[in-house]
Amino acid sequence: MVSKRENDSRVTGTFSLRQGKPGSKTFLECRERILLPEALNPGKAVQLQLFFALPQDATLEHWELDAVSESAFWFSDREIKSCPVPCL
Q: What is the 3-state secondary structure (H, E, C) of the chain?
């Protein structure tokens, strides 16, 4: 899902919860991608509460939160570390 701000041609970034490297055979992603509430400039921070539903039959190990510039790139593909997420 791609979201654009009103009167703005820029695509808004999202967060994805995933297993495996994007594009790999082991890649698995939750259905939801969480839209950033506003543009986030380098060096700035945002605090969010995120909820994801794991795909049915998914294992509980090795999930990572990754930022996505929709229709452009995954931040982890640009050497920006994703965040490991423990499933409780």
A: CCCECCCCCCECCEEEEEECCCCCCCCEEEEEEEECCCCCCCCCCCCCCCCCCCCCCCCCCCEEEEEEECCCEEHHHHCCCCEEECCC
pTM: 0.80
Half-sphere exposure of 41 (CA within 13 A, CB side): 0
54 and 31 in contact (C-beta within 8 Å)?
Answer: no
- Residue range 3-12: mean pLDDT, rounded: 51
pLDDT digit string, tens, across residues 31-81: 999 999 888 888 888 889 999 999 998 999 999 999 999 989 999 999 999
b/e per residue 74-88 (b: at least 16 CB within 10 A): bbbeeeeebeeeeee
